[in-house]
Amino acid sequence: PLKALDAAAIRARKGGTPLVCLTAYTTPVARIADTQCDLVLVGDSVGMVLHGMASTLSVTMEMMVLHGQAVARGLERALMVVDMPFGSYEESPQQALRNAVRIMAETGAGAVKLEGGRHMAETIGFLVQRGIPVMGHVGLTPQSVNTLGGYRVQGKGDDAARIRDDARAVSEAGAFSVVLEKVPAALSDQITAEIDIPTVGIGASAGCDGQILVIDDMLGLFADFKPRFVKRYADLAADATAAVQAYAEEVRARQFPAAEHVFTDAGAT
Ligand code: KIV
Ligand code: NA
């Protein structure tokens, strides 16, 4: 078996073979992701994808810990990163440390991820200096949807310098990697060339040091909406709907259960 990956191993992949990353929220899906992924993120997207929330703002520490524990049981090789939920780290470096320690201790995560650039650099440094590997996240930061004015592309035109400065600040603060979300491709490539840590793109560029998608999106399982940056590699919602329909028809026709699904008095238990 391959050696388990830690944050330092991910960091060392800068400029190398692109990092393969996906989200996961449950043990069985984590097992599937682990067959190919270098990094599995327990994203706070769990609130929208599994719990039907309208944004990530209502996701709690308890949800991240519970899903982190589930995902940990399915991983052998990939680095598990757990998102810090909205409100769990912004107040102070001390608050961030307390909650990051809880996530690491209760889930076995190898790192945490938090959103924000320059304004979070002090906190990132504070955590890293105390033994907590941090993945940054700049560009579109969904926890700030209400101040960003929606889920729009970040860093267009004159706004590019803001995203570059954010990525640089996260890197200089000691993060081992950084997510670039919905950043124009040319700017993503420029940032990737400029900073010392791997960039992991989502709606960014094939030139990033890695890519990440929400697994339910790429499997076509989360069909509520499909952002431009999602490529569907399967259509599991359609497959599941067809399977449920076939089951319903067989139940109504008394074709299910068949002889092999039922028990006899003398046979197997
Ligand atoms: O919560 C999430 O799934 C994420 C990734 C898409 C980067 O933060
Ligand atoms: Na997230």
Describe this entry's structure for a reader:
- With 269 residues, this protein is of the alpha/beta class.
- The chain has a single domain (7-234), classed as TIM Barrel, CATH 3.20.20.60.
- 38% of the residues lie in helices and 13% in strands.
- An eight-stranded parallel barrel has the order 1-2-3-4-5-6-7-8, surrounded by six helices.
- Helix 9 links the parallel strand 6 and strand 7.
- The longest helix has 17 residues, at 236-252.
- The radius of gyration is 21 Å and the shape is globular.
- The protein starts with 6 loop residues before the first helix and ends in a 17-residue tail after the last helix.
- The model has no long low-confidence stretch (mean pLDDT 97).
- Bound molecules: 3-methyl-2-oxobutanoic acid (KIV) and sodium ion.
